[in-house]
């Protein structure tokens, strides 16, 4: 009755026709594969869900991902008519939600069309909904709509049981956090380059913007005075940046190997210049220390540090890190990342941290952060694949 009351109240803002029927969209549902809906309550949860979606797509390439909520497409208005029209058009096979703010009309409409509903990272905290407080509380009934709930803590599981959620629905989980997916690499090329560069200290400037290149080159020149065999790998953000960076490297007077020309570094090489990020998975694995581009100049928003941390690379970064600030702050607090502001501070950091024991200590702390949410994402992916298999078997 509480959910019915909520839906009845919400109906007043919808687009139901005068005859009481729900209007249907004339647009057909795109594609043929099963649709998987991912709805995020916050942008941070949205980034974590994006990692989950990428992982699930790699396991089930036939699916179509539909993202709604923070940082993605708008979900339908919270009315029975609008949510029913959305659910009827897309008919998701699976839907994944995050957070404590529930949308009863949206969830009820999806369940009505046969969508399997999953809540990820439920915390031991009060749930909320967008309805009026004087209405009967729809949350206990709404929570029973979920087919699976992954809890963040044992306390969350106890709270959900008190609200009427069955034990068979609950699964132990963890806080939903953004995690790093290791970039791919050719094992043959990694083995060859590891043997070639193993005697030398190596650092990386990853996703470098052209406006940052002068600082990087001046820092490298200063660091080479203290470690004459130090090698810098420069990976521009894109080919436009490469076109501007290449003449700067040539004008630096340092001996350069141009990766896109098929050159291989030798004992005299001081800089390896790549054309783009195609082999970034290789370079992260070879360099124990990396400066992440887009962070010294305003406007770029920085680079997600988890792609480096997931591969055991210690992180240096500038002050302009935009939407990635929470992750950088966490890494810095644990000693896995250090901020630099100019060529002098960067060269000093490289000289100090290029020592294998220093870089390894930073990298270990960063790897812990980058993989903290991996077990939860793996568990949700396994559950999703089992549900898709069961759906196909019907």
Automatic annotation (TrEMBL):
Domain 3-deoxy-D-manno-octulosonic-acid transferase N-terminal, residue spans: 75-168
Listed EC numbers: 2.4.99.12
Catalytically driven reaction(s): lipid IVA (E. coli) + CMP-3-deoxy-beta-D-manno-octulosonate = alpha-Kdo-(2->6)-lipid IVA (E. coli) + CMP + H(+)
Domain of life assignment: Bacteria
Region (Disordered): 11-35
Keywords from the UniProt entry: Cell membrane, Lipopolysaccharide biosynthesis, Membrane, Transferase
A molecular function (GO) term: transferase activity
Subcellular location: Cell membrane
Pathway(s) served: Bacterial outer membrane biogenesis; LPS core biosynthesis
Main location: membrane
Alphabetical list of InterPro entries matching this protein: Glycos_transf_N, Kdotransferase
Family: Belongs to the glycosyltransferase group 1 family.
Function: Involved in lipopolysaccharide (LPS) biosynthesis. Catalyzes the transfer of 3-deoxy-D-manno-octulosonate (Kdo) residue(s) from CMP-Kdo to lipid IV(A), the tetraacyldisaccharide-1,4'-bisphosphate precursor of lipid A.
Protein name according to UniProt: 3-deoxy-D-manno-octulosonic acid transferase
